[in-house]
Amino acid sequence: MIRRLFLDHPASVGESYRAHFKVAARFGGSMLFGAAAAFVHAIIPALCQRTASSTVKRLHGRLAADPQRDGKRPDFEI
User: Where are the domains of the chain?
Assistant: First the structure.
């Protein structure tokens, strides 16, 4: 049970639990930042005009360029 919950997925993407935690936490932080920018933009359209889309593009680029994936479709189950 512990292995399935904490170790199987990180191992499937070639990472330890600690490494996967760091990557996933950074992605989560970036997504929160992008979401906050999108909400600011929704309220005041003149602000954060490209921040959310730039964040999404940057994160997608990091997933697609990951050498662990060997050209496979990105695994979005961070």
Answer: 2-68
